[in-house]
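Assemble and predict.
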Amino acid sequence: MRELCRTNSLLDIRNTENTEAFKAFVCVVLPAVVRKLHFRNNRCHKPISNSDFVSIPDEAFGLLILENNFDKWEKYVANGRKCDIAKKTQTKFAPTERSTNWASNTAALTRYNAYYHMIQQRRLDSEQQDLEKEIMDSFQEEPGNKIRRTGKRRFAEMDGTTEGNEEPMPPLPIAAIDSFA
Amino acid sequence: MVDNSDNEASSESSDEEQTEVREYKKYLKSIPAKYLKRIRAAATKENLPVATVNVSDSSSAEVASAVTCATTLTFTTELEEMEYLHSHPSKKETRSPFVFKSIANYLKDKVFPTVKFWADSDMKFTQPDFSKKVQTEKKEQARRICEKILEHLGREPDSGSGYSYHMCVPFWRAYRTEIKDELVRYRANVGSQAKEMYLEGKSNDMYQLFLIRSLTIFG
C-alpha cells in the first residue's frame, strides 16, 4: 500500500497484483470511513462491495484521504507523533501550508471522481468479488482465534476451564426440584 | 392598518396610535427594498396612500398573474415568492436542538455514506430552488436532501407532489448551516481516525491474519 501511495498509483489498488495492498486498505482505512462499530458488525457476513456495508463513495473517500495525507502520516511515522516537521507538512490537496480546507480543491474532487468510476467498474469483476469473499471468510475465522479479554474469568468458569489449566472442571449440579412450576 | 399620510394629525393623536405607527415603520424596514418598491408602485397606480398598504402573510398570498391590488402582497411568479421567503427575517423556522439531533443522526446514517462533498454551488446550496416540479432523480442535491430530512422527521407533505417551498424554505433556512457543518465534521473525523489507525499500523487483528509486513510501521 505504501508503494502504491509513493508511486501515486492508488487507482490500481483493485488490480490483481495489488491484493495485499487492498487488504491493508480494507483493514486500516475503511473502518475509519464507515465507523468502526459498523465495520465490525458487518465484516463477517457482507462483502465489501455491498452498498449497505461500504458504499462506493466510502471507498473512494478512503482512497482520497490516504492519498492526501500519506506524506504527512509517513513523517509522523518516521519522527514520532509529537514531531513539528510532520505537523507543518502540507497535505497533497491543501491549498496552503496551514489551510485544512482541502475538500473544496478542484484537484481533490477530480481525483475523487476518478476513484469513484474506478471502483464502480472494478466491483463488477468476478476476480474482485472472489477477493472480497476471501476477505470476508478470513474475518469469519478471526473470532475463533481470539481469546476474549473482557470477562475472561467468567467465560473460563462457564466453559469449565481456568486460565493456564485446560483440564475441564466437573459440571455444576442440576437442581433436583423444578421450582418454576 | 396604519394611515401614515396625515403625520401631523397622528402626532397629536393618542400614544397608542403613535406606537402603532412606530411599529409599522419598523416593519416596513424589515421588508426587502425590492418588494417595498413594488408595493409602492402598486399603491401609486391605484392612488392609494403607501402607508395604507397591508402586507399579508406570505402563506396567504396567492400567486396571481399580476399585481392587482395594493392592499395585499401578491407575487407574479412562485420564484418571487420563494425569494421573499428566503430573504424575510421572520420566515425562518425556530431552531430546536432536538430536531437537529434527529437531523444529525439521519445525516450520519443515510446521507454521509452517499454524499461526501456537496455537488451544488454555494448559491444553489444556500438558496435551492424548491419551486420547480421535477422528478426526484433530477432534483438538486440540497433540495433532495432537504425533502428526505423532512420525510425522516415525519412532516406531512403539504402538497400533492410532496413538500412545497412554503415548508422547505423556512426549514432549510433554519438548519442549512448546521447540515453543512455536520458533513464537514464527519469528513474531518474520518481523516483523524484513519490517521490514528495508520499510525498504529494494524487494525482489527486482520494484520496478523494477512501478515501485512509492510504495515509494521513501528516494528
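DSSP finds nine helices and no strands in chain B.
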